[in-house]
Amino acid sequence: xxxxxxYNIPIGPIHPALKEPILFTFDIQGEVINAVDFxxxxxxxxxxxxxxxxxxxxxxxxxxRICGICGVSHTLAFAxxxxxxxxxxxxxxAHYVRSIIAEFERIQSHLLxxxxxxxxxxFDTLFHLAWRVREEAMDVIEYxxxxxxxxxxVQVGGVRRDFTEDQFPRIRKALETYEGLVNKLVTLFLxxxxxxxxxxxxxxxxxxxxxxxCTVGPTARASGLxxxxxxxxxxxxxxxxxxxxxLPDVYADCIxxxxxxxxxxxxxxVVDSVRIIRDLMDQMPAGPVLWETRYAKILSxxxxxxxxxxxxxxxxxxxxxxxxxxxxxxxxxxxxxxASTYSNQMSWLKILQGEQIADIPxxxxxxxxxxxxxxxxxxxxxxxxxVMTKDTLHRLSVEKTRRLQA
Amino acid sequence: MTRQALSAEQIAETLQKTGPKSIKDVKIKTWTEGQKKxxxxxxxLRTTGESLIATIRAVIDIDYPHxxxxxxxxxxxxxxxxxxxxxxxxxxxxxxxxTISVPVPKKNLVIPTISxxxxxxxxxxxxKQEMLGVTVAGIPDPRGLFLPADFPKxxxxxxxxxxxIPEGMVKSLYASGRPEDRPLPxxxxxxxxxxxxxxxxxxxxxxxxxxxxxxxxxxxTTHDE
Lengths: 406, 225
Known about the structure:
The complex is a heterodimer of chains A (406) and B (225).
Chain A: E1 6-11, E2 23-29, E3 32-39, H1 47-51, H2 56-64, H3 73-86, H4 92-120, H5 124-145, E4 154-155, E5 158-159, H6 168-190, H7 193-199, H8 207-212, H9 217-222, H10 229-232, H11 259-283, H12 295-304, E6 306-315, E7 318-327, E8 334-338, H13 340-344, H14 347-351, H15 360-366, E9 376-381, E10 384-389, H16 390-405
Antiparallel strand pairs in A: 1-2, 1-9, 2-3, 4-5, 6-7, 7-8, 9-10
Helix pairs in contact in A: 2-3, 4-5, 4-11, 4-15, 5-6, 6-11, 7-16
Chain B: H1 8-18, E1 24-33, E2 38-46, H2 52-62, E3 66-74, E4 78-87, E5 96-105, E6 110-112, H3 121-132, E7 135-137, H4 167-170, H5 196-205, H6 213-224
Parallel strand pairs in B: 2-5, 6-7
Antiparallel strand pairs in B: 1-2, 3-4, 4-5
């Protein structure tokens, strides 16, 4: 075993399926991964730099476009930071509108991820099912905001559109659909022998590592870290209702921090989100949804504001963090965006170590719901590059599934 | 180990008592949202580069923090680094955000690494090195992170002085032309187009090869007629 030569395998950087292309470098000995390295930044667009030359109302719409899946999380985090600096009091109803959209976003994001995970394992029937039921959440988001992505609903000081009473039946219909699906999804994902074989004890992240590597969201929670911004530091309407961090022990007996636990956490978060939306709809107060409807006044208030603040939001993938400093000019003096994947990427170094090439797709995908897997891999053997496509990697993964089934 | 949550005031007091003497400007801010107006506290404090490690140690003694990110601001003569972290995470309503602000003079842009205390900090420290030009002393992985490999040396995107992004990099980009040192994209060589009429003509000349589909085509049509 030890006599086997170590091969260096770069993966990436172009991955059309990812929101963030990334370059992986694996040191492979036989089938086993010895070491991992990655280089992000293949789509660095300088959003922060652009923001520091724009006013807060413009940045709100720039934030919408940071991520295609977390359309509301970044905007909400930024708006919260600016509101704290300018001491703008957001109307109560706006907090509820923000939270309901954020929860629907969590449902669609987790289901998208669940489908991708199933596809990586070669379980394409489940992939199609997960993506079909995801459409229900997308339809509701479109019905409420006008867009499937880039909702453009959050504004500094509130939200730009209100929900009306006659829209509630459509929301309730979607919630009932998901409530009826819960048992089916849990059976299909968590009781399936093949998924158990492939995901249990794969890509393990211990609680200590999860804490020291600063992981967030479902990745941290699957390792047993009880960390959820919605519960720990309540924002928007989450302080008014009961929110608890979902740990894998809601389903399994013990917390292992493997890929299976990450599936458990995300699936049960979908269940919890449905409950949260119901609670929010029941308690939704009446009233305005925007602190000030004249944009000129919002702008002039932001322009006068001086100070610094942090806006934190629990995005589907974990903590989304915005730091803003205003110094009495139109544009912020400093704006730092920290997306959830920023915190979670370091964990790849640990969870991929000692695993097999065939497990790369599912483990890489396991920390990030958007990340499907690799598009193209170049294998360098004896100095001559040999292109391994995503299909080959996917085939390796499917073959492993079949081997285990036999 | 059972964790006992402390209030923001208690944390601030403990930090001033057990932490280094350089901790100053301790401020506690509270912000409320929602109908119940649930308060969320954050502590903002200043320290110096020399006592950064001691300050982080003092925070770890209270509770092992979750480091969100390190952000930085160019304020003229100094680059201010802000270490954002949360203690008592996982305790509903008890989480307190701590922001440690460290001014680093531009004359000597060096800050010690905190990655031996919080291993996950390497990632954000690498970003600070390339975005602000700060040297993180003792960083285990000094490579760049987000900027491309051919990004000009000595340009730091977040700086607001002469080392920031120059006009030429963002204005009149059309004038800069295509970089010449990069390989050209692969272009598939064009296949030789063979006109249909030519194929027929060839068949007419050489009828001894009836294997090709094209050759048999005209025959079939004639039979139908």
